[in-house]
Design goal:
The chain is 32% helix and 27% strand. The chain is α+β, with helices and mostly antiparallel strands and 297 residues long. It has a six-stranded mixed sheet, with helices on both faces.
């Protein structure tokens, strides 16, 4: 297992960390009748009190901001623990924990609760700036520090990927809604059950999905002149589902675009030895070294 050591650097007023034991690697996880006699006479729309919840912030992160390394996370973390190696690593977007932590950080962003401004890490004009937000979480039975990083500029490629995902979901939902509208049900209870099942199966990430139960009452009249007493006239009610897809708002799109740029760092270095801002500096410094080595090869 090849591990990269970071150069030594002292942080005034803080407990020194053995930089030869602070390693930086990217973790990876391992692991769709006759119209005349059947004409509708009455249509009743009954709103169904079931709708998709507020869209969640997308879980994908900008993978182009950090180098990748083919390591098995559980084994690597266990080895680091056994050898008492201090590390800083990128937590991949394929981890459910990564999406959960980014969601928590995004919810805290409007009030800036626990967010810390780091500023620029490069000595040049108009350089990208950063904010960090720290928490702790358990992974494979051990507790680690997690630092969510918010860059000032999202990667254009990740923004385009986000727009594609939104468009694809809209197309899939429209197709599913058309299929749903062709179904009919003999009773309202069956229609409501089908609506709840439909919402559960679709579970839109970006759009809001609403479903109505619609009752269609058909009157069946016998052929010939109608009788004065109305005998022979029968009514039948069937239920259909009408689904509506609500597009995300501009505010939601903006929030997703910003959150798309978030990435999460995981480390076992104590906070008194390396605050969240310094965790980011250490990590970005290693990324710069690896990028420079790649370009000179």
């Amino acid at each position: 297992m090849a591990l990269h050591a970071q150069h030594e650097r002292e942080i005034p007023g803080r407990q020194p960390v053995d930089r030869h034991k602070v390693v930086h690697r990217q973790l990876e996880s391992g692991p769709e009748d006759d119209p005349a006699s059947q004409a509708p006479e009455h249509i009743e729309r009954v709103p169904l009190q079931v709708a998709a919840g507020l869209p969640r912030i997308p879980a994908e992160a900008n993978q182009s901001r950090a180098p990748a390394g083919p390591l098995v996370p559980k084994e690597n973390l266990a080895r680091a623990q056994a050898k008492k190696v201090r590390f800083i690593s990128r937590l991949p977007a394929s981890f459910a924990l990564e999406a959960k932590v980014k969601q928590q950080a995004a919810l805290a962003w409007p009030s800036k609760a626990n967010w810390q401004y780091v500023g620029s890490l490069a000595q040049r004009a108009k350089a990208e700036t950063y904010w960090v937000w720290e928490t702790q979480a358990e992974l494979y039975g051990r507790t680690y520090r997690l630092v969510v990083v918010r860059p000032s500029r999202p990667d254009p490629r990740s923004v385009r990927a986000l727009e594609r995902r939104i468009d694809q979901e809209a197309q899939q939902l429209a197709k599913a809604c058309r299929r749903l509208s062709r179904q009919c049900f003999a009773c309202e209870a069956d229609a409501r059950s089908a609506a709840e099942r439909f919402l559960s199966e679709q579970a839109p990430l970006f759009h809001t999905l609403h479903v109505q139960v619609v009752a269609h009452t058909h009157t069946h009249r016998p052929r010939g002149r109608p009788r004065r007493d109305g005998a022979g006239v029968a009514s039948e009610t069937v239920w259909h589902l009408a689904a509506q897809v609500q597009e995300p708002t501009a505010e939601q799109r903006q929030a997703w675009t910003e959150a798309q740029a978030y990435f999460v760092l995981i480390t076992n270095v104590p906070s008194d030895a390396l605050p969240a801002a310094e965790v980011l500096r250490e990590y970005k410094g290693q990324v710069s070294v690896e990028t420079g080595l790649t370009q000179t090869r």
